[in-house]
Inverse folding.
């Protein structure tokens, strides 16, 4: 199977997953009630919502700039190379735009765009993106832990949200059997993988050397940027600011649709809803289509007593509004920097080749 065929199959599978999850999320929703809720909404709230979303990505670009400026210079005698915050912001928004078409390709696209515009080594820039993701994953883990504590009195509802659908398909007692089998299979695969790596000419060893090892080197380079950075406090503060903006963006639609009064949704509730919805975004469907809708709707209905139509209105609006904003701003940023979709695609394809080439790590 060729690389192109695998990519096509991955995209088709991603779209199929999105379609199935979107169907499950919106099954049984009264769209007349959704339309009525949309007609009665106070759309003046769109202004602050757009502002906090763009502010979050400006802060993300600023944080990224700090990481990039800690990269070792290509010419030591020239000293640290300044990075344009504007180009960093353009690249962030271009990455979000690409993510809606091809899941997870946005990180490569924004890395390739900035590396091309700023004449920086691709693998070093990719390392800083990995570090960014590590910072966000740490916040996500903290957030999910806090959600568990906040919703401890609703444990039965959490079980209905995450475990009951699986148990309903497998039957009583089968869940633990499945988990045990998964553990055994994982250990067996790890043993086979370790044995295969001993043979340098095996397909597994080539996969490791060509795919995993370069990414690991990029990770180490990026992690070193945090340790070298004199702005570690800024990195923590900007990360907190990013997620605060996300929280406000998650809460504002509840005000827009009058759900704070109708269902008593508070800012603290929005904190839980935001982090549970982030699980849906992490699932590899295009831009979180379907997965975000399903988890968000189920969260609102099962944990916060919101009716299905209102929950669907919130999920569809939040996801759709962000899609329109990110695609429009991403395309505008691409034009403002004097690039085109063709040049971005070419740069991304070259970047993907570099991530799979062991020699590229040292040549950059």
């Amino acid at each position: 199977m060729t690389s192109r065929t695998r990519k096509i199959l991955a995209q088709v599978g991603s779209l199929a997953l999105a379609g199935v999850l979107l169907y499950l999320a919106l099954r049984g929703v009264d769209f007349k009630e959704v339309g009525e809720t949309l007609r009665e909404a106070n759309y003046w709230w769109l202004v602050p919502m757009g502002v906090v979303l763009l502010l979050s990505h400006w802060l993300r670009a600023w944080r990224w700039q700090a990481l990039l400026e800690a990269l070792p210079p290509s010419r030591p005698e020239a000293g640290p190379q300044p990075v344009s915050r504007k180009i960093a912001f353009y690249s962030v928004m271009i990455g979000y735009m690409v993510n809606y078409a091809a899941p997870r390709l946005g990180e490569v696209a924004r890395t390739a765009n900035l590396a091309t515009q700023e004449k920086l080594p691709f693998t070093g820039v990719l390392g800083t993106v990995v570090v960014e993701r590590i910072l966000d994953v740490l916040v996500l883990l903290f957030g999910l832990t806090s959600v568990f504590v906040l919703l401890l009195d609703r444990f039965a509802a959490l079980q209905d949200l995450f475990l009951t659908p699986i148990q309903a398909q497998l039957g009583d007692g089968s869940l633990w059997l499945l988990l045990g089998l998964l553990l055994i299979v994982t250990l067996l695969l790890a043993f086979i993988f370790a044995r295969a790596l001993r043979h340098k000419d095996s397909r597994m060893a080539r996969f490791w050397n060509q795919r995993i090892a370069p990414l690991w080197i990029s990770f180490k380079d990026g992690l070193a940027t945090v340790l070298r950075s004199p702005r570690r406090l800024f990195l923590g503060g900007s990360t907190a600011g990013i997620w605060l903006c996300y929280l406000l963006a998650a809460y504002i639609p509840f005000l827009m649709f009058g759900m704070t009064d109708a269902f008593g949704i508070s800012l603290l509730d929005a904190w839980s809803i935001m982090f549970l919805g982030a699980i849906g975004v992490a699932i590899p469907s295009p831009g979180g289509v379907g997965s975000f809708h399903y988890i968000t709707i189920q969260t609102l209905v099962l944990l916060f007593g919101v009716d299905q139509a209102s929950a669907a209105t919130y999920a569809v609006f939040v996801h759709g509004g962000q899609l329109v904003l990110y695609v429009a701003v991403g395309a505008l940023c691409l034009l403002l920097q004097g690039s085109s979709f063709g040049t971005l695609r070419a740069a991304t394809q070259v970047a993907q080749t570099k991530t799979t080439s062991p020699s590229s790590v040292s040549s950059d």
User: Anything to note?
Assistant: The two ends are 30 Å apart (CA to CA).
